[in-house]
Design goal:
The chain has about 525 residues and is α+β, with helices and mostly antiparallel strands. It is about 35% helix and about 15% strand. Helix 5 packs parallel to helix 9, helix 10 packs across helix 16 and helix 12 packs parallel to helix 17. It starts with a helix and ends in a 14-residue tail after the last helix. It holds the Pfam family Peptidase_M16_C.
Length: about 525
C-alpha cells in the first residue's frame, strides 16, 4: 500500500508505473515523454481483437446437393467481391445427335434477354449496381456462365444466373445478331496470324475422328442458318438439367449460397418445358489417330512494316490420359518439362528457357520459329501434342526434330530438369490460384467432374511424388498409340503419315530415308 501512495505522490498512477509508463524523457516543450510498453493495454484505447488461426475447414471447398440433383459448391476467400457462376456438363462433344455449333450459339447468346430482363443492357445495368461483370465460355465438355460482383449482391446475382440459364428468350433479333457474330468469328479465325486455335481444332478432329472431343467446337458456316430457337430448346431440354449443373461460388458464405440456390434454382420450370428431351450422349472418347491437312497460302498472313515470314505449321499429338487418372500428374509434369515457346520469347526466371524444346530445338535450330508443348485433358481421354512452325522448305527436317523429341521423352530424365519442371508446375498452379475467377473455375470444374475438389496442397504433394520412372512409364505407353497430325500451310515437303508413324515407332525418331533419282 505504501508503494502505491509513493507512486501517486510522484504523479504517475500505479498501473502506468507497472506498464512502463514512468516519466523518463521529456519533450522539447518540457512535458514528460512516456516510455510505452506493448504488454499492457493503453489507457482509453479499445481492447485489440487479434485474428486467430482458423480451423482447416474454413479453407476447404464445401459441397451441398439439392433435392433436384443440383450441386452447390463454395470456397471461402476473403474480400469484398465474389465470383459466382453456373457450370453445365454440356459442350461440343455432346452434339453428335444435333446440328454442330449449338454450344457456339449458346455461348454467344448468353446474358441476352430473359423472362425477367428485357435486354442485355438491362442485365448489365443490374450488375453495374453491384460493380459486376459477366462472361460465358463454352469448351468441348463444359459451358460456364459466370459473374463477378460485390458479395452483398449475391441474391441478385444468383437470380440473374438462374434466369439466364433457364429462361432465355432467344428473340429473332438476337438470333440474327448471333449468326452475324459467328460468321465474323469464323472469317477472323482463318485470317489470324496465330493459327493455334485452328490447329487445336484440327488435331482434335484428327485424334478423335467424328466422335466426342473430335467434334468441331466452332459452328460450321452452313449450320448458322439452320440453328434456330426450336433446335436450341431441343438440345437444352436434354442437357440443361439440374443433375448436370453446378452452382459454384468463391468469396461467399456457403449457407447463403445454398439459400439462394433453393430460392431460384429449385422447382423452377425452364422455358423449354419439363418434358424429357433426347437421351443424353454418354459416349466415351475413341482415339483414332490420323492426319488432317489444310493446304493454304500463308505468304500474306501478316503484311506490314515487319511482316511475319511465310510459315508451315505442324502439330503432332499422341493420346495421354483423362484428368481423373493417376497418370494425369506425371503427364502435367512432362508437359512442363517439354515447355517451349516462340523463338522471340523474352527470357528470365520461370519463362521456361531451360525446357527441352528450348534447349534441344529452338536454341539449336535457328530456323525454327516456334516449338511448344500442349496438354489437353478431358474426363475420359487426353492429348499431348507439340506445335512447331518453320519455313515451308524445312518442313521435313522440322517433323524429324519433333518426332525425335517424342522418342527422347522415353529416355533418361535428368534429376535437375525433373525438379525444375515440378517446381515450375507447382508455382504456376499456386500463382494461378491467387486469382478469384481461376479458383471459381477450378472449384466448378472439379465438382462437376467428381463432386469433390482436390485442394492445391494435395496437388502439390502429388506433383512432388513424381519420379523419373513415372515419366518413362507414361511416355512408353503413349508411344504405342498411332499419332495424330495436323498440318497447315505449304505442305509440299510434308512427310507422309506412314513415315511419321514409322519415325515414332523407331529407336531414334528418324524419318525413313527418301531416295530420289532427280533432286
Amino acid at each position: 500500500p505504501g508503494g502505491g501512495a509513493a507512486a501517486a505522490r510522484d504523479g504517475v498512477p500505479p498501473v502506468s508505473r507497472r506498464c512502463g509508463l514512468a516519466a523518463g524523457r521529456s519533450y522539447s516543450g518540457g512535458g514528460a515523454y512516456p516510455s510505452v510498453s506493448l504488454t499492457c493495454p493503453l489507457p482509453g484505447v479499445p481492447k485489440a481483437v487479434f485474428a486467430a488461426a482458423e480451423s482447416r475447414e474454413r479453407f476447404e471447398t464445401r459441397v451441398t446437393v439439392l433435392e433436384n440433383g443440383l450441386r452447390v459448391a463454395s470456397q471461402n476467400k476473403f474480400g469484398q467481391f465474389c465470383t459466382v457462376g453456373i457450370l453445365v456438363n454440356s459442350g461440343s462433344r455432346h452434339e453428335a445427335k444435333y446440328l454442330s455449333g449449338i454450344s457456339h450459339f449458346l455461348e454467344k447468346l448468353a446474358f441476352s434477354s430473359t423472362a425477367q430482363f428485357g435486354s442485355k443492357d438491362e442485365i448489365l445495368l443490374t450488375l453495374e449496381k453491384h460493380g459486376g461483370i459477366c462472361d460465358c465460355q463454352a469448351s468441348r465438355d463444359t459451358i460456364m456462365y459466370a459473374v463477378s460482383a460485390d458479395a452483398r449482391g449475391l441474391d441478385t446475382v444468383v437470380n440473374l444466373l438462374a434466369d439466364v440459364t433457364l429462361q432465355p428468350r432467344f428473340s429473332d433479333e438476337e438470333m440474327e445478331m448471333t449468326r452475324m457474330a459467328i460468321r465474323f468469328e469464323l472469317e477472323d479465325l482463318n485470317m489470324r496470324p496465330d493459327p493455334e486455335p485452328l490447329l487445336t481444332e484440327m488435331i482434335h478432329a484428327a485424334a478423335f475422328r467424328d466422335n466426342t472431343v473430335g467434334l468441331n467446337r466452332f459452328c460450321p458456316v452452313e449450320n448458322t442458318d439452320k440453328i434456330d430457337r426450336a433446335v436450341l430448346h431441343s438440345y437444352l431440354s436434354s442437357y440443361y438439367t439440374p443433375d448436370r449443373m453446378v452452382l459454384a461460388g468463391v468469396g461467399i458464405e456457403h449457407e447463403h449460397l445454398v439459400e439462394c440456390a433453393r430460392k431460384y434454382l429449385l422447382g423452377v420450370q425452364p422455358v423449354w418445358g419439363s418434358g424429357q428431351g433426347r437421351a443424353v450422349d454418354r459416349s466415351v472418347a475413341q482415339y483414332t489417330g490420323g492426319i488432317i491437312k489444310v493446304e493454304k497460302d500463308m505468304s500474306d498472313v501478316s503484311l506490314g512494316p515487319t511482316p511475319i515470314p511465310e510459315l508451315t505449321h505442324i502439330m503432332i499429338g499422341l493420346e495421354s490420359c483423362s484428368f481423373l487418372e493417376d497418370d494425369f500428374i506425371p503427364f502435367a509434369v512432362l508437359n512442363m518439362m517439354m515447355g517451349g515457346g516462340g523463338s522471340f520469347s523474352a527470357g528470365g526466371p520461370g519463362k521456361g528457357m531451360f525446357t527441352r524444346l528450348y534447349l534441344n530445338v529452338l536454341n539449336r535450330h535457328h530456323w525454327m520459329y516456334n516449338a511448344t508443348s500442349y496438354h489437353h485433358s478431358y474426363e475420359d481421354t487426353g492429348l499431348l501434342c507439340i506445335h512447331a512452325s518453320a519455313d515451308p522448305k524445312q518442313v521435313r527436317e522440322m517433323v524429324e526434330i519433333i518426332t525425335r523429341e517424342f522418342i527422347l521423352m522415353a529416355g533418361a530424365v535428368g534429376e535437375v530438369e525433373l525438379e525444375r519442371a515440378k517446381t515450375q508446375l507447382k508455382s504456376m498452379l499456386m500463382m494461378n490460384l491467387e486469382s478469384r475467377p481461376v479458383i471459381f473455375e477450378d472449384v466448378g470444374r472439379q465438382v462437376l467432374a467428381t463432386s469433390t475438389r482436390k485442394l492445391p496442397h494435395e496437388l502439390c504433394a502429388l506433383i512432388s511424388q513424381v519420379k523419373p520412372s513415372d515419366i518413362k512409364r507414361v511416355v512408353t505407353k503413349m508411344l504405342h498409340k498411332k499419332p495424330a497430325v495436323a498440318a497447315l500451310g505449304d505442305l509440299t515437303d510434308l512427310p507422309t503419315y506412314e513415315h511419321i508413324q514409322a519415325a515414332l515407332s523407331s529407336k531414334d525418331g528418324r524419318l525413313p530415308r527418301l531416295y530420289r533419282l532427280f533432286r
